[in-house]
Amino acid sequence: MDGKGSGAGMDCHDCVISIEDMSFRYEGVDVFEGFNFRVLQRDFVGVAGSNGAGKTTLLKLIVGLLKPQKGRILLFGRPVQEFRDWERIGYVPQRLALNPLFPATVREVVRSGLFSRKKMFRRLTAEDHRKCEEAMQALGIADLADRRIGKLSGGQQQRVFLARSLVNNPDLLILDEPMNGIDAETQEAFFHMLNHLHQRHNITFLMVSHDIDLLRTHLGGEPKMRFGKLNFYIRHSHELEDCGEENLTHTLRDWRGRREPQARAH
User: Fold this and answer.
1) pTM of the full predicted structure?
2) How far is Cα 230 from Cα 148, in angstroms, rounded to an integer?
3) Closest Cα to residue 217, out of 251, 238, 191, 239?
4) Which of 8, 81, 100, 203 is the most buried (most CB within 10 A)?
C-alpha cells in the first residue's frame, strides 16, 4: 500500500498494525509469547499496564527499534524491517527519553517532524514553515520557539514533541505516556484534539499509559483484550465525518481561540 496522507488508498477495514504470533524475550524473561494483535484504520487503541508490563517494549517492537525472536509485525501491510514510509507515522516518546543537553531549539525540533529518511536533505518550503509555526501556536509554545528544548519544563517538552508528531499529518500516531508532566489545561486541549481527529480525520492512534482511569474515560470502561499484564482499550471510528481541514493542529488553534475570550471575561 503506497501513498501518504489521510490514509490514501486505505479503507476502514485495512490493517495499520498487524502482530502475528510474536514472541520477545529480554534478559531471559518472556515479555511476549505468541502475541497476536491487529489495529485497523481509524482505531484508537489505548494500552495500560503497570511498570515493567511491556508497554514501551511493545511500541519499540512496532517501530522496529527491537526485533522479536519469533513472529512478525506488519505496518500498513509491510514487514516492519522492510517498511520505508516512516513519514506516515508520528511518534511521541516518553519525556525521559530526551537528553537534557540536546542542543536543538523548539523550532528545530518541530521542523524535524517534516523530514524522513527519503527527504532528509530537502529544503523546507514556505508552506512547511507555516505548518510549523501554526503547530507551535496551537500547542502554546510559539513564544518558546528559540529556546533550547533541554531548558524547558517537562510539560513544555511534551508539547514540543506533540507538535513535531502532528506537523507532517501522519496516518498513524503513536504516543508513549504523552500525559506525563502535562498540566490539566494542556491535557484537556490535547484530548479535545484527539477526539476530533478520531471522529473527523483518517488517522489511527496507539497510546500507552499507566493511567487506567484516563483510558476508561476516553476509550470505554472495560478493556476489549488482555494479554499478560497489559489491558487494551479500543474505540472504533469507522464512519468518517470529513472535516475538510488538512492541518491536524487546527482543532487546538480553534479551541484556544474559544477559551481566550472566556479567560478575559473572568
Assistant:
1) 0.77
2) 36
3) 191
4) 203
